[in-house]
Amino acid sequence: MATAAAFAFPTGFRSEEIAANGTTLYVRHGGKGPAVVLLHGFGDTGDMWAPLAAVLAGARTVVVPDLRGMGLSAHPEAGYEKKNQAHDIAQVLRHLGIAQAALVTHDIGNMVGYALAAQFPEFATRWVAMDAPLPGIGPWDEIIRSPILWHFNFRGPDVERLVAGRERIYLDRFWNELSATPAAIGEATREHYAQLYAKPGAMHSAFNQFAAFAQDAIDNPALLAAKGKLTMPVLAIGADKSFGAAMAEDLRFVASDVTSAVIPNSGHWLMEEQPAATMSAIQAFLEKK
Asked: For a surface tag, which of 59, 129, 238, 250 has the fewest beta carbons within 10 Å of its beta carbon?
């Protein structure tokens, strides 16, 4: 189980607010060597990557943003289309003087990661994508009909009134129902993220991430048609109690060099449920020649 110390990044990391693409992103960065960008999803913030940053920082420059409207980043009203958020990340990289980077992404981070790799192939050297589909790609229309994904369309002013002050209750639903072992997501982890998602504007922005899926489902096939399949090496990590090997099947629609990895005894929350196995798979792929 995670404790509060689990969210501390290694000594020497800096945290700064970086103006990018009309908003401001909270970004942690440190380490030395080839760069890697870690992108989180819903229910987490960039804090989820602290253990991986500690593993990678000895040999890599590690960049960990909070996505637009999430965590400690600003909460603009618009711009949550993943094609646009890719510009957020590209501008952060330019600000930091980083010309190329590997990507490690989870959940909504996968969607931003694909849009970044497709639009800015000069930045992306390889990509690890973890346990979430891409809107408009492959069996997306079947996936979104699953009852377990009702939250994709759960938004609006009345929904925000219902969730206000009850963020922990709402988030517990995801940690409990989308995990293989709910106890693996400990009390410190739950309270940490519940407090961040209770900040003014945070849930409104999170709902906007999902609201943008309709446009993302238009943008992604258009990007694929215009740019073709990604050619960099891709590792598709699925949890055996969640997307499993289907993660690689989905990414093969958009990438030509895809390796599959399935983490056993895990649900969607790979970094919380099976951190050692997940980090081992990521590190091995990043080090592969």
From this structure: 59
